[in-house]
Amino acid sequence: MQERSRAGPCVQFVASLTVMSLAASGIARAGAVGEVDTALVVSVDVSNSVDEHRYKLQMEGIAQALEDPAVVNAILNGPQGGILFSMMTWADRPRIAIPWQRVSSAEDAAAVALRVRSLPRQGGEFTCVAGMLRNISDKVVPQIPAKALRVIVDVSGDGRENCNPEEPIEAVRDELVAAGVTINGLPILEGDKAATLEGWYREHVMGGPGAFVLPADGFKDFGRAIRQKFVIEISASRDRLRHASAEAE
After folding, report:
1. Which residues pair with 45 in a beta bridge?
2. pLDDT by residue (tens digit) across 71-124?
């Protein structure tokens, strides 16, 4: 009995240390999530105009952009030193290809780039922009796992809406903008829509604080364009476009 009375406080002390350790671990994990500078949704057109070669140009362009030193520097030099990255592929139906991932180091960026390169190709016939934006509004933005100083949706594609949506693109866009989301456009100027697509993106897709459209001169130019867009979007400075252009040359 006497030995039990001595062991009791000892066991309690060890248990107390264990609880404190677990609590500290929980605080560390919570702190690791913290705030981020940007929650970035990259939304990529994979409709029937995007063949295997064009698909690979887009995926490789996004992967290389994530690994680019200028992009990594923009991520690390923000006030919070990190971003959240998500990716959607879309045609007839949208698909969340990569759920929210925190990127706060070059290693994180490389890991996400590897996932982008490994994505299986999704097929589809039509260019359903309104449906894609609706899915982002309902299923992607509400699932942002940390407080973000800004939320940006990056929409790229080589065509206009052709799905006869139940709700206008502008209505969904304006709903996202009202929720504090900025939507930027990356029209890929190739094919019979090349001459008018940039204007269509400006009128129907772009919206929100600081929104802009930065076109790619065809699919071969996609990598350059997405890299510049990432720098601007992550650093939240449109003045960085000039610097990003100089670095790309």
Report:
1. 90
2. 999 999 999 999 999 999 999 999 999 999 999 999 999 999 999 999 998 878
The C-alpha atoms of residue 206 and residue 219 are separated, in whole angstroms, by 20
| Beta-strand pair 148-157/181-187 | parallel
Q: Compute the distance between CA of residue 135 and CA of residue 88 in angstroms, rounded to an integer.
A: 10
Are 202 and 230 contacting, i.e. CB atoms less than 8 angstroms apart? no
**Mean pLDDT of the chain, nearest integer:** 85
In angstroms, the CA 57 to CA 52 distance is 9
| pLDDT score at 14 | 35
The CA distance from 90 to 159, in Å, is 12
Q: How confident is the model at residue 237 (pLDDT cuts 50, 70, 90)?
A: low
